[in-house]
Known about the structure:
A 16-stranded antiparallel β-sheet has the order 1-2-3-4-5-6-7-8-9-10-11-12-13-14-15-16, with no helix packed on it. By secondary structure, it is mainly beta. It is elongated, with a radius of gyration of 24 Å. It is built from no helices and 16 strands. It has a domain at 103-171 and 191-197. It is 0% helix and 62% strand.
Amino acid sequence: EYDGDRNPEGERHGYGKARLPNGDTYEGEYQRGLRSGRGTYRFKSGALYTGSYLQNKKHGKGIFFYPDGSKYAGDWVDDQRQGHGEYMYANGDIYIGEWFDHKRHGQGTYVYKDTGSKYVGRWVNGIQEGPAELIHLNHRFKGRFFNGRPSGRGKYIFDFGCEQHGEYIQLPQEKEEEEEEQASLPVEPKWKVTEITKLTPWTPEESP
Length: 208
């Protein structure tokens, strides 16, 4: 069903309201039969998008409310979260930063609601990777991340005025004959302390 403006060719053009065969509804702007411009799309599932469209795809600035209570507000390109945006997750965690192809990608900050801890750094395809800082209540870790885990040289900075330098070492995985069929869990990297110092200006970007 469609109720709204049309152009001389009879195409939806201008402002209109539509009910789709699957029960979804759209109210907003059309150009030559396609959703283009500002509009609000309500999904039968309970999700809702309000923002910019280009040729039936979410494109530009927009807010998406997901059925689980999470919300994304930011840039869209070709129906994907892309550019800069803020995502509030159902558990209360928040990510603010860059997106590419629907994933966290680039520079961004992730705040963990339960602990108040904060990851500030690089992301690659939704995974923490590159120089970063992990900030806790009374101390923080500065170093590099690889595949979502700290890796290589880094330091812990404590609020009472000292630092613990060291590196994260990936331990070799122990294999048992009978368990080779099962998918093995990744081994947590182990922190090896090299020295404790007063506060220094060292940052992970200076590492080779």
